[in-house]
Specification:
By secondary structure, this protein is α+β, with helices and mostly antiparallel strands. It has two domains: about 70 residues, Beta-grasp domain (Ubiquitin-like (UB roll)), CATH 3.10.20.30; about 70 residues, DNA polymerase, domain 1 (Orthogonal Bundle), CATH 1.10.150.120. The protein has five helices and five strands. A hairpin with a 2-residue loop joins strand 3 and strand 4.
Length: about 150
């Protein structure tokens, strides 16, 4: 099937199998490897991207479902060489360790902060429930989210 998808502001047209997942389209067809494959069952959130501005797990979306839509990946979050405030906060507040979950966590977190500009710690933890980190214990992720909220 032919799909036309705008990813990080660039329009792409590709022929894909109807069963191809969006995460594989991004990684294999477009070479955008910042979106990680964690579980392939939508449990971990490592593959989170924005589709038409909403946070989605790209392992649970078919590439054909993205036809005609706008997708933003971690590679497209920074603008003009300047990190997104949440990317900067993850760096400054040590919100990552191994980094595997980080792109998905930042994508989910940035969508959450857009909709909840002044969240409490509890709201942040609830907002990130669909993203798993096995390294950090989440405290620094929450601190990064709070810091970014203050700077956005």
């Amino acid at each position: 099937m032919k799909v036309t998808v705008t990813v990080n502001g660039t329009r792409y047209e590709r022929e894909v199998e109807s069963r191809m997942l969006l995460v594989h389209f991004l990684r294999e067809e477009l070479g955008l490897t910042g979106t990680n494959i964690g579980c392939d069952t939508s449990q971990c959130g490592a593959c989170t991207v924005h589709m038409d501005g909403k946070s989605v797990k790209s392992c649970a979306v078919l590439a054909v479902q993205a036809d005609g839509r706008e997708v933003t990946t971690i590679e497209g979050l920074a603008q003009d060489g300047t990190l997104h405030p949440l990317q900067a906060a993850f760096w400054e507040k040590h919100g990552l360790q191994c980094g595997y979950c980080t792109p998905g966590m930042i994508m989910a977190g940035s969508a959450f902060l857009r909709d909840h500009p002044h969240p409490t710690d509890e709201e942040i933890r609830h907002g990130l429930e669909g993203n798993i980190c096995r390294c950090t214990g989440y405290q620094n992720i929450v601190a990064a989210m709070k810091s970014a909220a203050e700077n956005m």
